[in-house]
Amino acid sequence: AILYTVLFTSCLVFTFLSSVDCAGLEDWTCDAIFFNAKDGCDCNCGTIDPDCEKQENPEIINCGAGQHCSPEGLCVSVPPSPSPTNPPTPEASIQDCSVVTCSDGLTCDEGTGLCGVYLSTVHVPESSTAVWLRGKGLTGRIPKEISLLERLTLLDVSNNAFTGPIPEEVGELQKLSFIFMSNNQLTGLVPTSLLQLQDLQYLHLNDNAISGNFPLRFKELGKLASVQLGGNLFENNCDCEFVGKYTEFVERFGIRFDAFRSNTCSDINEYSGILPHIIRPEPEAPCSHVVVKTNITELSASSAALEWSLPGGISNDRSIVERGEVVVPYSDVVNRIGTENQDSLRSCESFRSTYSENVTILGFDVAIYDIASENTSNACYFGAELQRNCSSREDFCFSLGGLLPAREYEVIVRPFFAYFGAGTSVKYVYGPRSRPKSIVTLDDSPLDAPQHFHYETVQDREATLSWKEPEYPNGDVTGYEIEVMELGNFSVNKVGNENTPQRFLELSNLDVVTSYQIRIRARTGESNYGPYSDIIELETCPENMKKTSNSSCYAEIGFFENSVGFAERCDTLGFALGVGYCLTEGTTVQTLPIKPGFWRPSKMSSFVWKCPDQTFCSQDGFNSLGNLTDINDQCKDTHQGIFCSDCIEGYALNRTTCTLCTDDVFTTHKRAFVTVMIILLVVMVVGVLKIVCASHLFDECSSGLHGQSLNGGLIKETPSSSREISGRSWTKRKLQSSWKIWFSKLGASCRDTFNLFFKVKIRILFGFAQVFYALLPRQYYWDTEKGASVLEFVTGLSPKDLLDLFEIRCYYDTSHYDILLLYTLLPITFIGVVVSVYACITHYRRASRYKEQMKRESITTVFYLTFIIYPGVSRVILQTFMCEDFEEADGDFITTRFLGVDTRLSCEDSNERLFWIWYASIMVLVFPIGILFMYSFSLYQRSSLFEKDEEDLTAQDVENKAMVRFLTEPYRTGLYWFEAYELVRKLVQSYTNTWVSAPNAAAEDIIPNMFSLNICFVSVFILVYLKPYKDDGDFWFALLSLLLLMPLIQMKMLDLSSEQFTIGTNWLLGLEFLLMFTIGFAQLRCSRKRKTSIRMAMGSKIIQPEAESPK
């Protein structure tokens, strides 16, 4: 050993100085000094000596005469050959296979012309005595025709990939001495025919997949010197008999048998995994191992019956072993050993000698191992005690009692011989243990209820319950029973997961916002129920909400929780929410991400409005009300109130935002206010003067003054003045007269053209513009940026439109009540002034003859005034009653009820509100109802005059008809009431825009728009059906004007931008003017052509010569 150690170390250290090769030294069995020592080929040393391969014709050491060293390092009698087979003799010549006849099973090789057998792709001649095919990469099966190679003494096919079984025909090669088939993929059994090879010396079958029983009989071959069988799949039944024979096998071959690479004992007893030659059973022990039956009889929750047999043991009528001539019958054992304690575990040490003779009795040690508690209990019984009530007389049966339910046990049975002798203690000699037998007792009812019973989630109609198994289930839980009791009607429903023992359950079909009481119990087996758990109370959530065991109900994804605890869809507010809204659970009304330009009346409000002026509600990014302390934090700086439309103290609205009211700004706005008042006064004066001038009262005054100066002597004509007058040149007088005549004719022509072709069309245009501007998206008191166009002001005479042209709010911030007061009092004041002037003038004696003319002009002017202001003033009056509610407003910063057209004004009960309600109610009687009544009564009062012919009318009748010419002039006889109908139509269509609720983020309310659109359709139908206008051009223009209102209404229902809407409305207005002028001038041209044709026709009649009279 010292020499070996020194040499091996020297190899490792001085490899680079010497040529000694250390590889393979670990398998070397001879003296280490001779390994790779360049002293010759050392054979039979456990492995090949490198000297055998490196030296040419080395000296063979350790082999007999005529022997050589094989590639495995073994002494063989056949000399090695450098070719796969023995080469042909030099005398042999290559023959053509076509003339060669081979015996059955042999094949001729085209290359050599010899008959032989193919091993894979290699041809082995029939005359071969040795086959050297080690490591050639050959595949396939070993053919059975190999038995035809009768001269074969050595067969080496190691280190290839041959498959299939070893042919039985190999055993027919009687001269075969060496078989090397290791490191292939051979399967099947070791052929028993190999036992016929009496000259067999080497049998190497290791490292294949050969199975079956281990071939112990090969020890019978006398010449067999080396056996290598390791690395296969042999089944070693390690009982006493096998172990004894295997031990003899190992001793027979010694180191020539790879015992340490052989298969271990099979898994049939406690020797599993152990090399058989290591086992040393006691000579006096039972040889056989116990074979426990697979079926367990009489299995229950606390007991089980086990049966086993003892192969090779005693017969069914004996339970003791013969010792010499003494035999104890089975019946004697039963009679002399008490068996009443069989069902109790009995320690082996508690046995006492019951025999005085020297006898041996078979017994069994039963070990019961509790896997859960890791405790082991042993019981010993004589075989005679365990042969009652078994299924077979040769079996032994044992009843295990006192087991726990649903527990897994392992039972190991070990046979033993109890040797009894007179006056001595019992001697126990144990045999091999059996394989562990697993026993699982049946389930019993659980001892307690499921633990941690609670609900995981609760929704509106569903709930998920969760729990843990009982602490003492007494078996495998196979299901649960859940009892659900609704508190409202005390109905009980039992549900459960009957098929799988899962520890959760989803309850469905529950009622919304309903309380339930729920309890649960576990089940083992089919019907072993345990006790119920404690009751848990569960209340379902509102629709689209859920909760967990440690939270209250919250909104699901896509919903938000409103102020009263219910869920609302976020899609209803999608227009006002930011990107990715409501993507998480638990969104509340306070945490909704509102886009800039939208407004809410309180932190808890689920109503979102689009700010009429979005710049007032602009915020950077998204905002929510969760962190706001003041509702006005939604607004732009210096803004506050509903829709952020009011300004904080010290600021006033201008064109775009709230402006600081400095002293200079205050002065400027004050001047603008004075200017507005002057304009209103001038308009009233002009109106009065128009009436006076139209009644020719000034002509009377001027003529009277002129007469007084001439006849009365108040103004005396002096000679110089007379001379001046007489001194005027005739040319100058002629020129002045010509210009005056020309201008007079031009004015008359224009006046006639206007009256004939454009006067009624202008009225139709006014009616169109009144409805057109009323149908536009409604403007509020803060809409100063857009202002009013000249056409809107002229066709409506609204004080608000006039005030919007000037900035006066730092001086006087007008409200809707101010506009109501101005819009109603100014017409009344004007009419009062007109009546006063009329009363004063009619008392003037010289002007009394113009009384009727002035009366007619006054009435006509009132008609014109009421025609213009009727839709606008009526809308303003009716808007006073239109209040809107913010039910969710806080009532502090934002009022809960406000005036729709002016959000600064509260509609809550107060003296101020009561006054304006009464005032607006009176104005309803004066304007919307009063004007309509005035039109209708004027027409009704003169209805009899309309039925008379013109020649039947008196001068007074003509004057009375002239009073209402404004109402009758455009229409055909019998349809004068159409103007009153037009008032109603314009009022209805104008007022529909007031029906729209507070400006929300959606489009305008579709119902008023659809109503107004239907009014247009009905009006078109009535107009086409009645054709009330005298002139066809007026009819077509009125029809087209009604049709132009339809696209405006449709544009309102579309989601257009303000720029797109403005462009569309401008196009409609331009088209309206274009139609008016096109139709008017077309009528004018046609009229002139008609007049020309008439003149030409009349002229031809005049110049036609008269026929000569007969003589």
What's a concise summary of this model?
The protein is 33% helix and 17% strand.
Structural classification: alpha+beta
CA-CA gap between termini: 188 Å
Uncertain segments are: 1-21, 79-92, 315-331, 333-345, 701-728, 996-1004, 1106-1111
Residue fraction in strands: 15-25%
Q: From the alpha-carbon coordinates, what is the Rg to the nearest angstrom?
A: 64 Å
Mean pLDDT: 77
Helix percentage range: 25-40%
Broad shape? elongated
- Biggest sheet overview: 6 strands, antiparallel
Task: Give the helix tally.
Answer: 21
Describe the structure.
- The protein has 1111 residues and is α+β, with helices and mostly antiparallel strands.
- The protein is 33% helix and 17% strand.
- It has 21 helices and 46 strands.
- The strands form 15 sheets. Strands 20, 21, 22, 24, 25 and 26 form a 6-stranded antiparallel sheet that branches. Strands 8-10-12-14-16 form a 5-stranded parallel sheet, with no helix packed on it.
- A hairpin with a 2-residue loop joins strand 6 (115-119) and strand 7.
- The chain is elongated.
- Residues 1-21, 79-92, 315-331, 333-345, 701-728, 996-1004 and 1106-1111 have low confidence and may be disordered.
